[in-house]
Design goal:
The structure is a homodimer of 192-residue chains.
Chain A lengths: L15 H16 L6 H8 L5 H6 L2 H22 L4 H14 L1 H7 L10 H21 L6 H20 L12 H13 L4
Chain A binds a DNA duplex (30 and 30 nucleotides) through helix 2 and helix 3.
Chain lengths: 192, 192
DNA sequence: AGGTAATCTTGTCAATGACTAGATAAGGTG
DNA sequence: CACCTTATCTAGTCATTGACAAGATTACCT
């Protein structure tokens, strides 16, 4: 998200892969994961319309790279919040809001190549961190899987509803993190 | 979802609007809300490539109609399940799974005209039914709004994760309704 | 019967995704 | 330094698409 447009001297861009990814993230943030064209990314990066294909193959390739990078960043965020159990839930929501472009791609596998190895590895890393955080919510045995699903669904649903504007609160000046934490505590602040 | 392809005698289709909607629903179920073209819908309905435009204007118009119809059916489903409080949550998830094509459009307002009056009315009806169901979960005063958001987030998140295959359970032979009910009861089967 | 509006067709245009062939540069090896 | 291999990028092409315009056909109403 840094080196998008700089003077490009010669034939070779130097960092086209990064530039296209950044252009894609900007475009997704502006108009969703489908509201842009490969050729537009090429224009933004100042290269010919077919240049991005060399790095990503096709449009799905760009989105695969976005998802892979997204899951890496997501895992990092969740890890940093591994302290308290609510922290992971809050971090989940915060990531969705702060890195909306990544988030909107990550959980829409029909947009990209879900069998991409690099992407799958990143996704599994995030999944592992998530599962570890979930386990802290219910040290009891037995209902573990259920309460993990519950916590995940709660965080994911809140994030999704917030992002698509279904919650009236998201159109006011409410603070996402505050509200998310309140909801999580309401549900999980008792022994489960 | 009935009169898709029948012998079309003359110049006029007779029920093109319905036919295009059904074709859209089938196409969405097969390849998502963006994996098809207006012209393909026209081909499926057996009309010229520009015929659907008369009824829907453009692609967003088709998706607006899908969303409107979806919210109507959704409200119906929720109303039928208004008996027990968990029923609404289960019905939420069941609708998402049984009417996936509708659901995948409804909560993606960037795909259609979110200010369409007919669509907004249907959405608000569904919202009202949902709020009424949520109120039954917490007869207590005070935390009402929070627990409504929690219940909604839980059901929505579970449905979303199930649909996009993020839950390993959704790839096995697990029963959605059973699992959804278990999760809902785990979270809300105690005084809130 | 006649007119009006709704419905559908044909034709068109710029934009797009995907592909091909070829040009240019970078890096290593001798 | 010359050479070669490979990565990177450009230019050109094609079928498809969304959107629009103009005109043909039909239904409906009086």
């Amino acid at each position: 998200m840094a080196t998008t447009d700089q003077e490009r001297p010669g034939y070779h861009h130097g960092n086209l892969r990064r530039a296209v990814l950044d252009a894609a993230l900007a475009a997704i943030a502006e108009s969703g994961p489908s509201g842009w064209s490969l050729r537009e990314l090429a224009r933004r990066a100042g290269v010919s319309h077919a240049a991005p294909a060399h790095h990503f193959g096709d449009k799905a390739g760009v989105l695969t790279a976005v998802a892979a990078e997204g899951f890496e960043l997501f895992a990092d965020s969740l890890e940093r919040a591994a302290g308290d159990p609510f922290g992971a839930g809050v971090a989940y929501v915060r990531f969705a809001v702060d890195h909306r472009a990544y988030f909107e791609v990550m959980f829409r596998p029909e947009l990209y190549r879900a069998d991409d190895p690099e992407m799958a590895a990143a996704r599994e890393r995030a999944g592992a961190v998530l599962a570890a955080s979930g386990r802290k919510l219910s040290p009891s045995g037995g209902a573990d899987r259920l309460s993990t699903i519950a916590a995940w669904s709660l965080a994911h649903g809140f994030a999704a509803l917030w992002l698509n504007g279904a919650l009236p609160e998201s159109r006011g000046e409410a603070d996402v993190e505050e509200l998310a934490r309140a909801v999580l505590e309401l549900v999980f602040a008792r022994p489960v």
